[in-house]
Amino acid sequence: MNNQNQDNINISNNQSSIEQLRNQNQSNNLINDNNNLTEEEKKRQSELLKIYKLKKLAKSVVIPSNDKEVKFRLRELGQPICYFGEKAFDRRERLKKILTNKILTEGKIPSFSKKVEKPEESRVLENEIFYTEGSLELKQIRMQIAKYSIPKSAFRLAVTKKKFMEIDRIQESIDYEKYLMKMKKFEFSNSQFADERGCARGRISPNNQMYGVAGWSGICSVYSIYYYVYNRYS
Amino acid sequence: MFTIDIPDLKMKFLLKGHADRVNSIAFHPFSLSSIPKIGPNIATASSDCTVKIWTCNDEWEEQKCVTFKGHEDRVNYVDFHPMGRVIASTSHDKTWRLWDIETKKELMIQEGHSNHVYPLSFQDDGALLVKTIRFIFFTIF
User: Fold this and answer.
1) Which of the residues A16, A138, B129, B134 has an alpha carbon 20 to 30 A from that of B116?
2) How far apart are CA B139 and CA B137, in angstroms?
3) Which residue of chain B has the CA closest to A229?
4) Is residue B17, in this structure, part of any structural domain at all?
């Protein structure tokens, strides 16, 4: 029984291998056929490609949105500037069509000799930077500010550079998460009426002892925020 | 064991003097420390087109002030330069101005904004200033 079975399997294997070979042959034939076809129609294909490329080129040509320039270009191409009842948009579309036709027939972009002045230049003239002379006091104070700020910013830069070199990225992210967790615990602690009308703005003084409130009633109030610390043992 | 911090919100003093609503308040960067209480400590900006600088003395009932006039519309915001000598204020009249505290004079006006100027802030170094105009951001020296 076993022998017979093995024989059967062998036969089936042989059959399958033959089928595979046939398939391979067929596919090879197909490829060959294709190759033959391209050789026959190579010319046509290349022509189609050429036309496709030209169409792409025609699409890439920038057509001016300025009506005056559109008219100039139409005139240069030997076309009527304006048809009866034609608007600027239609004119531009017409120029587009003529240009694509010309590119398809000639195979390159027609060059235009005339160029109307660009409106951008006038805009630039309007936005030109101009300086007004400041007073002498302003100059003095600016000098003071420069003397104050340059060493300070240099110091800050040095510190940040040093930090950047030393800092461990993982440790930094851990610290940041810890900080966020800390912030979650914050709660609202106190409230007080400061003004008859709305309160526009409040500021804490730089030494953390005063709190000023600007009120809409025209009166500002300043509060002390000394922190009394109570220790409780439990 | 744990500690509880309770701030006492005692009113120290009032700053009376503005005729219209007060829009902004700012403390001098050295106020209550190196500057005496009689000196310029607090700046406020008001809708009555003025900026005022106030003393900060608890013992007096009413505080003294210096007014800076010049804005043509309500003043939106006021802030001290970290150096402590100059203050800047923004206004609804589409300008912002720099004032000198020591000489009590206007140093600079910048006009030509397209819209009302809103909060401004100095960089910590004091070299740059950011101001916010409606819908637009600007940075200047």
Assistant:
1) A138
2) 7
3) B5
4) no
What span, in angstroms and rounded, lies between the C-alpha atoms of B109 and B69?
Answer: 13
Chain B: nearest CA to A50, how far in angstroms? 50
Contact across the interface for B24 and A214, Cβ inside 8 Å: yes
Asked if A38 and A45 touch (Cβ cutoff 8 Å), the reply is yes
* CATH, domain A61-122, list 4.10.280, 2.40.50, 3.10.260, 1.10.287: 4.10.280
Residues in chain B: 141
Tell me the three state secondary structure of residue B66.
strand
Among B5, B125, B140, the strongest candidate for a mutation testing the A interface, having the largest count of A CBs within 10 A, is: B125
User: Computed from CA positions of residues A159, A165, A168, A172, in that sequence, does the dihedral angle turn out positive or negative?
Assistant: positive
Does B15 map to a domain? no
ipTM: 0.76
CATH of the domain at B105: 2.130.10.10
In a domain, B104, yes or no: yes
Instruction: Name the residue with higher pLDDT: A213 or B4.
Output: A213
